[in-house]
Write a structure and sequence with these properties.
elongated
Length: 134
């Protein structure tokens, strides 16, 4: 019973490793795309920055997990992971249209702006994950 499960360990390791790499790519691209330094602000105990980035990361992880479940190859996973990145970047840019000076608001610790961005990111992630349930 244990041996058949262990035969799937290499597939698990591969999909998990690629998923972690995609999370790293997401964090790199997202933090470069925003006009504020999320990690610097988080190091300064800026709750707004932590909230917006944390919910955005969750909004990315949901469709990524859906992609892991539904992908049959690493290429499928990578493509759908990149789609999830694009969706989250699009959400950020759309929220910037609705909330002028979004980055400066988050940098100054405005929780309302951060929460709205985070909620929009999370909502997009849920919809994105459902759409990937092909």
């Amino acid at each position: 019973m244990l041996v058949p499960a262990l035969t799937k360990l290499p597939d698990f390791a591969l999909f998990f490793s690629v998923s972690l790499a995609l999370v790293g790519v997401y964090l790199l691209v997202y933090t470069l795309a925003t006009s504020h330094n999320e990690f610097g602000l988080i190091r300064q105990n800026n709750v707004a920055a932590a909230l917006s980035l944390g919910l955005s990361l969750t909004g990315f992880a949901l469709p990524l997990s859906s992609a892991v479940v539904h992908s049959t190859t690493i290429l499928d996973l990578a493509i759908w992971g990149l789609v999830a990145i694009v969706v989250q970047l699009t959400v950020y840019w759309l929220v910037r249209l609705v909330l002028p000076n979004l980055s400066s608001r988050i940098a100054s610790g405005e929780l309302a702006s951060a929460l709205f961005l985070g909620a929009a990111s999370l909502a997009a992630g849920v919809i994105n994950a459902a759409a990937m349930s092909f």
